Amino acid sequence: MTTNPESVRQRSGARRRRLLAAGAAVALLAAACGGGDDEASDTTIAATTVPPEDREPATVTLWSSFTDPETIEKFQPLIDRCQTDNEWLTIEYVAKDDMSTALAAASEANEVPDLVQADFTGGLAKIQATGVISPVDEFIERDGFDWDQFVPGGQKLVTFNGKRWGIPFSVDTVALFYNQDILDEAGLEVPTTWDDLVAAAEALIERDDDGNLTRLGFVPDVGDGSYVTSSALAYGGAAFSDDGTEVLVGDGDAWATMLRDQQKFYDIVGNDDLTEFAAGFGSYDSSENFFITGEVPLYFEGSYFVTWPGRFGEGKPANWGVVPLPAPDGSPEGVSMVASGNSFFIPAEATDREASWVAASCMATAAQEIATLQEFNGNIPSNIAALDIFEADQVAKIPQFQAFVDIARSPDALVQSNGVIAETASDQIVQLALEFRRGNIADEDLESELADLDGRLQDELDLELG
Length: 466
Known about the structure:
Elements lengths: L4 H8 L9 H11 L5 H4 L16 E7 L4 H17 L3 E7 L3 H10 L6 E4 L5 H7 L6 H7 L8 H6 L1 E2 L2 E2 L2 E13 H6 L8 H10 L2 E2 L5 E3 L12 H4 L22 H16 L1 H9 L10 H4 L4 E5 L5 H5 L7 E4 L13 E9 L7 H11 L3 H11 L2 E2 L2 H14 L3 H9 L12 H16 L8 H20 L1
Parallel strand pairs: 1-2, 1-3
Antiparallel strand pairs: 3-11, 4-5, 6-9, 6-10, 6-11, 6-12, 7-8
């Protein structure tokens, strides 16, 4: 199986921008639509039932974040299926390299598309505030649409403040990759508890005669803070309250405990040594990737990464696997985490919202076509029927996908909280984490720094909410 690297970057929003990256899109949309307009946020456009045989021909313009030719080709069968099932319907696929900029410009010009396929993880609060994209509850209730045909994590990604703002399409679950051969050489078992992971991180470090790092064991990320925000989920930490009105970074001890637990790994290797070592890594999406080369034998990554040893590794690593990230409390069950996910969204000003709903609901439930697309992409289907097909076909080819399928099925899957300042919050939390790692924030000052950040973000949130 092969996948174009560019599709991975489009699908994931790039690894180093994945978490809460959709905040940029909705922030630009807010600016284009005049910010948090209360009247717009409460607007609900009633669905209109029209029997299929009486439908006038309709064309739905679909904007998709998948832009590379190979992925577009794999997406086409979904369109073909839904056009065949609805002869009156035409779906025009439009690839958008930068969805945030494109949507902002379209909204400002009153030229929004009829349907959007994108990742708005963490950004539904902004969508509610602007009214750019409308809820789909009226269609779900009117048609008796089976919401439970989607995995719990997918449902959570599109639900905010009691409303469903989209239809789930795929989820990007994350888990721990391990190099079995390197673990065997070190006499180690695959880590199943947090203490095991810490011990393995220390035991697997190698240095040359000059003391320079030649191999890490495990670090939560290789210096960019890319998993700081999502890691807090495992500790019960959320950036925002369920209704998006409160900042929770300084609430309780979840965030401080998470940062201190992460710090253990950086203390083992030394932050300066890590920075120097990581600077020498080869290209992330190549045969020089640090997991493929064995430079980092334990690493936390998304489901699409399962395809990379086959695509780039040329037989390396020869023996590897995937398990859920061990839970901080040492529970062997591990953590079920969804970092992000793609969904279908209907703009409030779509030309024909009924046609948009038909197109979205059809494409989101076309099980065989979804499974085929996600087998190519390496993401996990949100639709359970598609997931069943994916599991039967893909796990037989690449057994390591099983861990990600199991995480996707989990009723306890963890997802990011939503806030209108999600992007700002993520950036500032990561910056605080990096300062703590570098020793610029003393351990005894960590709680007060988090409290200060909480206060600053709350002031900004209150201002945005008016």
